[in-house]
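S., here's the first fold you wanted:
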Amino acid sequence: MDNINLYNRQEKLKLNIPNTVCVLGLGGIGSWVALNMALVGVKKLFLIDYDLIEEHNLNRTPFREVDIGEHKTTAVMELILERRSDIQIRIFNKRIEELSIYEIEEISESKSIIIDCRDVIDKLPNTLQNNPHIKLGYDGLNITVMINPVFSDVWETEENRGYQITPSFLVPCQFLAGLITMLLCEPNFDISKMENESVTFDISKHFIEVIKNDKDFTKIKNQDSCVAKATKKRR
């Protein structure tokens, strides 16, 4: 594939595209994160997930009905290679705790940015502690982003570290995937200078407040209404 033609429309943005990314957990968030990273131009991806695709995954992931029963890692890799045949992808169909020391060292030495999309909050293996690390999660409409988190500050005990059964649909997953892709590619963003930073908010309420309080948005909205009325009159 001709990457010059593929990416010429984003050149002027001067994006700071990561070279290597490791996506941990390929469910609602991780499947989109991996696809986004590939499409934006990341050269190498590590994909880690032990799980198989089930029917209930299809309402919030890019997976297809024909993918049911397949490993999530394999399905994501296939989706990516249909679009980015030049990318390097390493898949691991197991939990990160089950990786061999050589596999962990391979990820560590690649200087991968690790994007943890698992539905539990847990420590990374010691060998990966120095890699830049982002933890993403959502609970209903509440999303959470943690950058280089300190595990002991997130949970005080080892119990109840995972999400409970919560309503899930497409928007929080795609919102988080788009947000973190934009953040990592931002020219002025340096993840190595951030430690234990986190934010949690309700995306629906937050967006509504922005619409209500942003004067520029209101101005644009009013202009659009005028254009719509003028168009209707001409018809």
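And the second, which I think is the more interesting of the pair:
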Amino acid sequence: MRRAATGSGATGSRCTRRSSSYIRDFKASAALLLDSVATFTATELLSYNTFIFYTVVAAMVALPRKELKAKVIDAPEILQVLHELPHMPELLEGMYSSAYAKLMRALVATIDLMKADRYLTKHARYYFREVRVMAYTQFMESYRSVSLVSMAASFGVSPAHMDKELSGFICSGRLSCKIDAVAGVVNSTRPDAKSAQYLATIKQGDLLLNRVQKLTA
């Protein structure tokens, strides 16, 4: 059963949750909202369905895939009303199940909902960008190389649109891949686990050597 929080602490907590969303700290917002799901009854402020909508929106960009399933997708309190929230089941399923075309359709509809919300409207453009980056990154984790046509089909867009999308994110440093326009292929430039560990070790060694040199200078 959900119980209402009481006292000044409850008021402060509600203000903190709202403030975290307002200043675009989705990670803090998600943590606070998820912590309150089981005890929320402050329907004088907003409906429970709206509260869960905020929770799902924040969690989507704040939680790793495994945590998203454990804390949101499989959460009994959220499952109670998830089917009543337009596009939220598809948004979650699309990301977790790698159904990217479904995800993108649900994302576009979700952005429209965010634009109509007084608290989320200013974050809609940022959110649209971040979820797309997350989806493209997650997709590329399964490939070292994939055809642009195949990737575009997975996301339900044209190859030309996919090319433009990826190029923008690659140029801004948000995606670790490159496009071979001649071959029509997207190549991942993300180092594998062993390579990443090797590079990290080299970097740590360089830092240690610099410190030793400073001490002996």
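Why I say that: Residues 7-131 form one domain. The chain has eleven helices and three strands.

Talk tomorrow,
H.
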